[in-house]
Each structure stands twice: as structure tokens, then as C-alpha cells.
Amino acid sequence: MKSISLIIPAYNEEKRIGGTLTDYQAFASQNYGDYEMFVVCDGCTDRTPKIVKEFCRQNPRIKLLEFPHKLGKGGGVLKGFTAAGSDVIGFVDADGAVSPEEFDKLVKALDGADCSIASRHMAISKILAKQSLMRRVASRGFNLLVRMMFGLPFKDTQCGAKVMKKSVIDSVLPKIMLRGYEFDVELLWRVKRGGYIIKEVPITWRHMGNSTFSLKCAPAMFLNLLRVRFS
Q1: What is the DSSP letter of 125?
Q2: Distance in angstroms (rounded) separating the CA atoms of residues 29 and 20
Q3: How many Å is the maximal CA-CA distance in the chain?
Q4: Within 13 Å of residue 157, how many CA atoms lie on the same side as its CB?
Q5: What pLDDT, in 10s, does the model give residues 183-201?
């Protein structure tokens, strides 16, 4: 088994980060011979960093990257990319919507691929708890727009779990411009343009409440994507 680095961006996740870390470290210790986990806390105003520090004291494989100001979802993942040193590097949301067992499907999917992404919208994907109707409509509309603008064939660019080889990250990292929630789109576009093989993997996913994402972010996301696409 190759070494694995897992990045978890966590902004004000005091209610969920403990459960996520407990589940992932238990799974990783049993299934991955060599692993490290980076929790990126940026501008937190709650107890998230304190909770993570306690996990770090108990398990040296868990590491906290703490910043005094908000970096954005993409900015946090990029900080993790820079710190990670394993052969395989992935990231997952802090809310636990993607279980360790489902994340492991992405790790295994790297056989014959350079990058693997979780998908909620493939024929055999399962959603155990759905988002609101407005969120689902907005998500599908965003995905259609992305497919048209960037020529990406994937059914779900925004699911918060992706894994890729370190060589792929090293290749595209200097080109990444975006730092917000739209980061995933640019990342996949850069990887695809680099000629790498991306595999979309159906997963079982559960919507978790109290997301820090708001639909009010959508106009800014669209403008940022236009800037990248036509820069």
C-alpha cells in the first residue's frame, strides 16, 4: 500500500470534526500502512482548532495547519497540498458526508487512473439524506454550466472528496488561481488539460446540515470561473 495524505479543510466545524477524525483515523490505521492527516483551520472563531490539537496529541499522524484568516475552501486544500508528502493525496469535507469506506473507493480507483472523484449523481450512487430542493436544483444547474464552459464530462464536480497522485498535484499546483468553493472545477480542468486520466466514482453520500456554503456565493463563483476560463 502506498502512503496516503488526507486533507480536511475545517472552518468552524467544532460540532463535527471530532466524529470525522475519529472515524477516519480508525479506518486509516487499519487499512493504510502509512498515512498522515492534515486538518486546515483558517480563521476559525470556535473550538475547532482546540479539538484538533487534542487529536494531534494522541496521534502524531494527525497534524493541524492553523491560519488566523479565512483562506476559502480551495485555499485550505492548497495549503494541505503543499504540506502533504505522500504518494497519494486526497481531500474530504469535515462534515462526514463521505464516510472513510466511501473515500477508500477513490483510493482504490487510482488503479488505472491519475485522479478519482466522488460522485453523487451517477446511476448507482446513493444519497441517504437529501439536500433541500433549492440546493439540488442549484447544484444540477451549476454542473450543467460547468460542463458547457469547461468541457468537463463529469456528473458531479462539487462532491467534497477527491484523490490523486502526488505527481499530478505537483504538475497543476502552480497554475491554480481560485481559492473558493469553485476551486474543484478549476482543479479538475487543470488535471484534464494536463492529459491525466480522471475516474468518476459513484458513492453513498449523506447530506449533513449546518453547511458553511451559501447559495449567495454562486454569483462570485460564476465570475471567478469566467476569469479562469478566459484568462
Answers
A1: -
A2: 14
A3: 47
A4: 28
A5: 999 999 999 999 999 999 9
Find cell 464552459 and name the residue.
149
Q: What is the mean pLDDT of the chain?
A: 92
DSSP summary character for residue 173? G
What predicted TM-score, i.e. pTM, was given to this entire model? 0.90
Please report the DSSP string for 87-116 in residue order: SEEEEE-TT-SS-HHHHHHHHHHTTT-SEE
In the three-class reduction of DSSP (H, G, I as helix; E, B as strand; rest coil), residue 4 is classed as strand
Domain count of the fold of the chain: 1
The grid cell for 226 is: 469566467
| Cα–Cα dist 228/231, whole Å | 5
3-state secondary structure of 210: coil
Q: Write the pLDDT tens digit of every residue in 108-142.
A: 999 999 999 999 999 999 988 665 677 666 667 77
> Strand pairing partners for 116?
163, 199
Q: What is the CATH number of the domain that holds 90?
A: 3.90.550.10
The beta strand positions in the chain, using DSSP E, are 4-9, 35-42, 62-67, 88-92, 115-119, 126-129, 161-165, 198-202, 204-206
CA-nearest of 116, 115, 117, 118 to 127 is 118
